[in-house]
Amino acid sequence: MEKIGIIDLGSNSARLVIVNLFADGYFMVVDELKESVRLGQDMERDGFLKPARVAETIKTLKMFRKLCDASGVTRIIAVATEAVRRAKNQRSFLDEIQANCGIKIRVLTAEEEAIYVYRGVINSMDIPKGIVLEIGGGSTKIIYYNRRNMLNYVTLPFGAVTLTGLFSGDGLKPEEQAAKVEEFFNEQLKQVEWLKEVDPDVQMIGVGGSFRNLFKIAKMVKKYPLDTVHNYKMMVEDFIPVYDMIKVLDLDKKKKIKGLSAERADILPAALAVIKSFVSFMQVDSFTFSGSGLREGIMFNQALPMTLEKPVSDVLNYSLTTLVKYYDCDENHVEHVVNLSIQLFKQLRVLHKFPRQYLKILKVAAMLHDCGMRIKYYNHQRHSWYMIMNSTLYGVTHRDIVLAAFTACCHKKEDINTYDWARYKDIVSNEDLEVVKKLGVMLRIAESLDRANSGTIKGVNCDILGDSVIMKTEVVGDASLEIRNAMKAATEFRKFFHKNLEIL
Fold first, then answer.
1. pLDDT tier at 414 (50, 70, 90 boundaries)?
2. How far apart are CA 407 and CA 365, in angstroms?
3. Are strands 75-80 and 2-9 parallel, antiparallel or unpaired?
4. Mean pLDDT of 474-488
5. Taking a C-beta distance cutoff of 8 angstroms, is the pair 143, 206 a contact?
6. pLDDT tens for each residue of 195-232
7. I need a surface site. Which of 103, 330, 373, 427 has the fewest CB within 10 A?
8. Is residue 106 a contact partner of residue 78, using CB atoms and an 8 Å limit?
9. Phi, psi torsion values for 453, nearest 5 degrees
10. Of residues 96, 101, 113, the one with CA closest to residue 8
11. Is residue 130 within 8 Å of 205, Cβ to Cβ?
């Protein structure tokens, strides 16, 4: 395993993420540090990075270097984006960082930056056709892809910091400033010819700190129960009231908004105005948040060099395998339980009548059903529930995550806390509770059929005869332990499937 540090020096903030790279192509973020440096502030006048901003950046990078050294980081990959890319004093700035911090920074071209953002999105989201809006401090990127291939991109040389500075004078009220940003951005969009050729059913994807802050505000407004920004879907009709509320406030009032970072309070209205202009121009009715962007694009390329040529083919499976390895689950047992669960799902379809997409939920639950043992064996199904709810899972919706977590919680017994279930009423329905219980029974049987973690039972064949399900096992060796344990689920099986269970 190798530990690397990735530094992203943007126009508004500097970020360090420390990442463990596993030998077989997987990675996990293990630490992060973020500081607001406002490197791009006041550059519009003469194109030079200002001494105070440079000094703040060097101070921050020294802290990053200290954390990397203390954490055992063996390699630092540092990149800079729009502000440094445009700076007339770029070379002296980079030399000063090298001399003071011992960090060599690579200035990304606009194309390289767009490609990294695209790779972060495409390797972590199961959205085959999307248009990405990434709002930085000094630039805004729009990336269009279809069939998991990047088709077009544009980098507009202004972002939340520069737009705020551009329209903050002239004694304009906050809402007038926001209207000016909207109008200005709309004019810029009209000049991007290829936007007119984007498919009308494309899914908009939001990337960057402004979207993360918007999620935190939306979470507070809607009392949303999950903390996961990745794959959160927001309707435009829900976005507009948030935007209208924020754009009229002065700075002091914005800083008091729960969920809004105080260091971003002054520039968020400009970012929201960009979003408003974009959703109106593209005529979309919703957008999905991505927690992955430039830094994750670098992580994927470092851990899995094949992503330099083509994206991960199965986003969900890659994500699940990463967690199985990170939580040190028994990989052979996991694979066996997944296979048996899939067999049961398919062979009992005439009873449960679930569409194919529910198989994805069962697979997530089956792969992570034992991860709670990293906390404690006793009642580990409850710990697995919490860990699935809070893990970084790619390629699944928030609803899928909730259903999979509750399904995993049932793999020892029917163990659904009604209070916990009620907390997620805005994500799942009462009808979903029956789905979870049926999937949970299938998972419990599958897990029991590999009770000794030995792979004794290779497969099952189910015959539905009258009021009974006859489950015939394909075994290698003595399977009495496995069958005895699986039969303990017979009462629950009868309760939810209305059939007696016999296992041979």
1. low
2. 6
3. parallel
4. 95
5. no
6. 999 998 999 999 999 999 999 999 999 999 999 999 99
7. 330
8. yes
9. 55, 35
10. 113
11. yes
